[in-house]
Each structure stands twice: as structure tokens, then as C-alpha cells.
Design brief:
Blueprint: H1 7-21, H2 36-39, E1 41-43, E2 46-48, E3 73-78, H3 82-92, E4 98-104, H4 108-117, E5 125-126, E6 142-145, H5 152-161, E7 165-168, H6 176-188, E8 193-195, H7 203-213, E9 220-230, H8 241-244, H9 248-264, E10 270-276, E11 290-296, E12 302-308, E13 310-321, E14 324-329, E15 338-345, E16 348-352, H10 361-375, H11 383-402, E17 406-407
Parallel strand pairs: 3-4, 3-6, 4-5, 6-7, 7-8, 9-12
Antiparallel strand pairs: 1-2, 9-13, 10-11, 10-17, 11-12, 13-14, 14-15, 15-16
Length: 425
């Protein structure tokens, strides 16, 4: 018999991993025993399989290793609008370290249906006025606030008062004062506060950040970013200044702003901006339809960004450096990111398109928060990150209103807006 078809040959083909898994599984009675490559086994507390592919192909995806449900961080989802039902709750179903255990909603009928869909106890469903009942629910360790922007402060403070960690949707709030109050409330209670900047956890965006900050592109010169979409009719809370704090800028322009800060690793010192709303369109009586702005950074790096509720969809950015550039298509979308790197190798230009396994970016950010809760770590995107963006957005609004460049207040001494980088996905 050829060695490749013997148990020893299979073990050699699988390498050390196969040897470590030998004898880990019994076969079906009456059938030949499975090979180690097919059966896999337990290694360091998780299921593992030796690589069964040839050297020309990448190894397969390892099986997920979620914590048992009772050991995952329990989240109460606050608000059952589009973002919660279309993104957050489906993502929680994919999380490895977190699970949904309670709901808070203004619609008892909708909340009861969602609770049945996700296996949430009927007595863990509450109205907004009964939010504080979460205090006595030991299954709830954290809340995910998926409410309109102006409500983030209230429910962050209410969560802190009952001892629950907070993950809130972006933008963090509608004013720097509210952001600061949210940070203070969670700090007093020794609770984690994180802002849901999902792009900072998504693999293609993280690869772009690494390329920018490791010098792969040389000194950074320009960022061109666009987050554009065509919004529908009113009424929508996004068209209310009281609820949203602004229009396209805080909702989607924020992604461009945050990308510029994250990619460069710098804080901008000046901004110029222009806003536009179509005359006679009642949707934009209180908020801007479109905002274009340019950020200047200490190194000379310039970031130009456009955000709009009235343009054909575009959610990409191009980053240019002295020795190369990168293009991230659909950078700010929920899925479908495509990264390309362009560099010069001698006389030739090269193009790379890294192959990155897709992950649910909402699940990645929620699991990061869960890890921070479990381990007492500072989140990668804490409240200070949300406050910093709010300070800059205030300057962008002033620049647009006054028609001249506006200085951006510096980060206060001793404050680091961003926490440690998230663990690899």
C-alpha cells in the first residue's frame, strides 16, 4: 500500500496538527474509522482540523469557537428601529462572546414578536418608561442603544445609573456637552462606554489602516472620501435637527471624518466647509442635505470629504501617499468592501487586492465590546472618540455657516481618544 493512503501518510500530510488530533474521534459503529484529517479533534479548548488542501490553496476557515450561551455577555437592545432589526439583532445571532437577552421598545406588539424570534424571555421585554427594571436582570450586563441621536445621552446616563455597560450607535450624541456628560456618567460608575464605529472593526478598513500607518504608502498626502445616498420622503427623524443634530454630516459624513483621523493617526487643526440644501424641499428645512469639507492636519495631510442625502450611492475612499495609494470601495457600506493597493516597484507599478474573509462588522464590534466587559479593557472606540468627532463636526458646521476656515480645538492634554487596537478577527 502506498504511504499516502496509510494512516501514517495521512498524518504526515496533515502535519503536526494531524498528529495532535490523532484518536480524537470514534467512527460510526460498523464503518471504517475516520481519518484525523476528516474527524479533527479538540485542541486548546476548541475544535480544530488539519489542513486538507494542497499547498497551492489557502487553509480552510476554522470552525467558530463561541462561548457557551450562559457565558456570553448579555445585551439589552434599546430601540427596535431599522438599525436594530436589520443589523444589530442579526449580528448578535452571529456573535461569539455576546447574546441578546432583553429588549426595550415603545411598541409592545413589535417587541413581543422580536422576543419570540430571538428566544428572549417575555419578562425581559420592557417599555422605555420601565427601562430601570433592567437593574435587577442579572442576565443583562450591557445595553446597545439604537435610538435617534438626541436620545443617546439620556439612555446612557440611565444605563450607568443601574450599573450596565453602554455600546451606543454613532454619532455619539448631538453636542459635545452631551458626549462629555455620557463619558462622565460611565466613568463615575466604572463602566465601559463604547461608540459603534463599525468600520474600525471591519477587516478591509483595518487592512487600510495598517497600510497607512506602517509606512507602506510613504508619507500620506491626500484622502478623498465620499459617503453619498439618496434619501426618501419625510417625515423621518433624520430630518429633525432636535433628534438628529444635523443632516448628512452627522449621519454619514461622520464616516469620512472618522476615516481621515483613523488612517492618518493625526488630529486635524483646521477645516473649511460648504453646506447645501435644495430650496423649497421641506425635508431640509432644518438640516443640510449635503456637506463638503476639507480637513488640514499638522503634517500637511489633507482630507477632502463629501456627504449627501441627495446623490447616487457612493461609499468609498482613496488614500494617496508619496510611494503608493489605496482604494477602498464600499468602505462605509455594511458589506462588500474591496481593497486595492497601488505601489511602485522599480520602474513598474504594482496592484494588490488582498483576499480578506468577510465578517459581519456589527458582530465584530459587539464582540469587541463584550471582550472589554469580560476583561475590564478600554474599548478601541470609547466615548472620547465620539466626543472628538463631535468637536470636529461642530467646527465643520461653523465653517459652513461663516464661509471661512475654522480652527479645530486641540485634544486636551492627557486625553487619548482611541483605545487599544481590537484583536484580530
Amino acid at each position: 500500500m502506498a504511504e499516502g493512503t496509510t494512516r501514517r501518510g495521512i498524518m504526515r500530510a496533515g502535519g503536526v496538527a494531524a498528529a495532535g488530533l490523532a484518536g480524537s474521534a470514534a467512527g460510526v459503529p460498523g464503518s471504517p474509522p475516520p481519518s484525523p484529517i476528516d474527524a479533527g479533534g479538540v485542541q486548546e479548548g476548541r475544535i480544530a482540523f488539519p489542513n486538507w488542501r494542497g499547498e497551492a490553496d489557502p487553509p480552510g476557515e476554522p470552525p467558530p469557537a463561541p462561548l457557551p450561551p450562559e457565558e456570553r455577555v448579555g445585551f439589552a437592545v434599546i430601540g427596535l428601529g431599522r438599525i436594530a432589526l436589520e443589523q444589530v439583532l442579526p449580528a448578535l445571532a452571529q456573535c461569539r462572546l455576546a447574546r441578546p437577552v432583553a429588549l426595550v421598545s415603545g411598541s409592545a406588539e413589535k417587541a413581543a414578536l422580536v422576543a419570540r424570534q430571538y428566544g428572549i424571555r417575555p419578562d425581559a421585554v420592557h417599555g422605555y418608561e420601565a427601562f430601570e427594571r433592567l437593574r435587577d436582570d442579572q442576565a443583562v450586563q450591557a445595553v446597545y442603544i439604537a435610538l435617534p441621536n438626541a436620545m443617546h445621552r439620556e439612555f446612557t446616563e440611565r444605563a450607568a445609573a443601574i450599573g450596565k455597560h453602554v455600546l451606543t450607535e454613532k454619532p455619539m450624541a448631538t453636542s459635545a456637552e452631551d458626549c462629555a456628560a455620557m463619558i462622565a456618567a460611565c466613568a463615575r460608575a466604572n463602566l465601559r462606554l463604547m461608540v459603534a464605529y463599525r468600520c474600525q472593526y471591519e477587516q478591509a478598513n483595518r487592512a487600510a489602516i495598517r497600510a497607512a500607518q506602517t509606512g507602506a504608502l510613504g508619507r500620506l498626502r491626500f484622502l478623498h472620501a465620499a459617503n453619498l445616498q439618496s434619501n426618501g420622503p419625510g417625515p423621518q427623524w433624520r430630518y429633525s435637527r432636535r433628534l438628529a443634530g444635523g443632516g448628512a454630516l452627522p449621519d454619514i459624513g461622520l464616516y469620512c471624518l472618522n476615516a481621515a483621523r483613523t488612517l492618518s493617526g493625526e488630529e486635524p487643526v483646521e477645516v473649511s466647509a460648504q453646506a447645501y440644501s435644495p430650496p423649497g424641499d421641506e425635508r431640509y428645512r432644518e438640516v443640510e442635505e449635503s456637506m463638503s469639507f476639507t480637513l488640514r492636519f499638522p503634517s500637511g495631510f489633507l482630507a477632502q470629504a463629501q456627504s449627501s442625502y441627495g446623490a447616487y450611492q457612493e461609499k468609498s475612499f482613496r488614500l494617496s501617499g508619496e510611494r503608493g495609494s489605496l482604494l477602498l470601495e464600499d468602505a462605509f457600506a455594511y458589506r462588500g468592501q474591496r481593497l486595492r493597493l497601488f505601489r511602485r516597484d522599480g520602474e513598474q507599478g504594482t496592484e494588490e487586492a488582498p483576499q480578506l474573509r468577510p465578517r459581519n462588522q456589527f458582530a465584530l464590534e459587539i464582540d469587541h465590546m463584550a471582550r472589554c466587559v469580560r476583561e475590564g479593557r478600554r474599548p478601541h472606540t470609547p466615548g472620547e472618540e465620539g466626543l472628538r468627532d463631535q468637536v470636529i463636526m461642530d467646527a465643520i458646521q461653523r465653517a459652513a455657516e461663516r464661509g471661512r476656515p475654522e480652527p479645530i480645538p486641540p485634544v486636551p492634554a492627557g486625553i487619548e481618544p482611541r483605545g487599544p487596537a481590537p484583536d484580530p478577527a
